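Q: Two folds, back to back.
A: First:
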Amino acid sequence: MDTHAGERPLCTFLLLFKINPSPVTVSSQKKCHVSLEDRKTKNLAGPKFCSLKTLIFVLLINLMQFKDLSLSPQIQQAITEAGYNTATPVQERVIPEVLRRNDVLASAQTGTGKTAAFAIPLLQLLAKKVGKTGRTKYPEVLILSPTRELAVQIEENIRIYGKYSGVTSGVVFGGASMKPQIEMLQNGPDILVATPGRLLDLRKQGYVDLDKITILVLDEADLMLDMGFIDEVQKIMRLSPNLQQRLMFSATIAHKVEYLAKEFLQEPVRIEVDPASSAAPEVEQKLFYV
């Protein structure tokens, strides 16, 4: 369909952002909606087009702000300084459920903000507990990641979001010296991000007590299973008997992810955002044949 320069069909934005399709009145008192009768009378064959300015206005008044998500002043300050103002769809839907202490199974495209969707509310829950009872000497939240690079990135983001919260974090992964990771564990981080293999190695040596974990997050669950970590993940689940909350995040929910979710989660809230794709449009993907 041809469109005029600088204009897009409103229905496209309604579909992408799940905006209520009822007429939206803007400051000029014009409405981005034309009835079927108007189309017949005025011989308008296609959907009514709105100016880009009007569409931006519509989007801004419908997208949820982080300040509307009941976050603590400390976390709100940190994410605002990091440039976070408007929540993405997965953040808007996941954050309240985590704060309600529900188990969650969430599917969203890579690059849509899944890390913040679980890290921000977990920081809030822990900060509230630390404020009441003081810090413990062991991690209470465990986040499993399939690769070293993802684990490091998650922990870096947690530090950014939680820099005023009083909550501490650390990361362990294979392919690196254990000594600094052991020293970090001896300081007792509140949140531990780990790859499965290195976590089990450290537990075997007595440096990690999975009995103390109350919240377990599986991030990039589909990639975790594709990389053959199913046995390690199931073992970690069995060795964590005192879980109170379980969160699973995946770019897609294939049959194997569904199977693991049934085993891992308890009456989860299921959230799917753009489930047909595995990467956001902003994420560039390349395929190399070797």
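A: Second:
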Amino acid sequence: TDDPNVEVLQILGEWYLLPQDGFADGELTVNLTEYGFCGLDVDQEVIVLGPTLQPSIMSNDACRGELVTLIPVLEEDAELVWQLTPDSSVATDFPLPFPYSQPGLYFPSLTASANGYCTGTYVDTVEIFEPSRPLLLCDADCDGGRGCEVNFDAVSVCVGVQNPQEYSSIEWYVRRQFFPGAEAEIEIAVDDLVPCEENRVRMVGFDTNGCRVEVAENIEFTDVLLYAPNAFTPNADGYNDVFKPVISGAPVDYSIHIFDRWGNTVFESNDPYEPWHGNVEGRDFYNDPEIYSYIIKFLPCQPEEEEKEMVVTGMITLIR
């Protein structure tokens, strides 16, 4: 052929015509000259080349574990064959969203064929990202230190995410409630935490590749705060009728003993919520108005090995 936009190849006795960029669809004249013992044999053929289909793919990059959606883009109706992986192909118009399990580059292809057209193939590029793995850092006193254990002496605790530049957006949740602030670090008042319960701080965000990330840390608040009043009036008027320590937290191995001036036990209990009504050993009559002593012992709500027992002592005045 004299057309400069058509490349001619011979492979194992077969001739191939490869139209290149710039070739106009239509008739192509092919001249074949065969040299033999009897002279030259000249043949001429006219080949009609139809237009080549030009499919393309609309796709999305994704994060590991997400699905990739592939949508064909065609100018003409055609039969489609998808090559989603090197080992699999499927003939369908719209393939199901496909999970690429490992991070990296993938090259799904689409081949379109139809009567009157040359088959066209499009190779797409899809990138699968590995989500970032955030790490939360705790500063129990917001003083530049480290640690997620707080007690009643602290005013606040700061929690932040390591390498904040890796995240395009951040949201915080404290004890399952949304916590205002989209900064890389938040400051939580100790008054917003509950002793001896789970004080879970959770960060939800998106990294710079658009992958959703989530990480959580529990603030350990094992301290127990106990306050004991110094007087009460068991006169059934509805005000200060019982003696009961006010406790924040859930002490372990709790015990209370109350003694009169001679050292006799007038009340004892292992229930931190059981009050003393001012009577002797649970009987109906009341003790005389006087000053009594008490001793309270307990461990923190999550005691560790060899944890020191807390001991609180004091005096209580029974007033008629």
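Q: And?
A: The radius of gyration is 41 Å.
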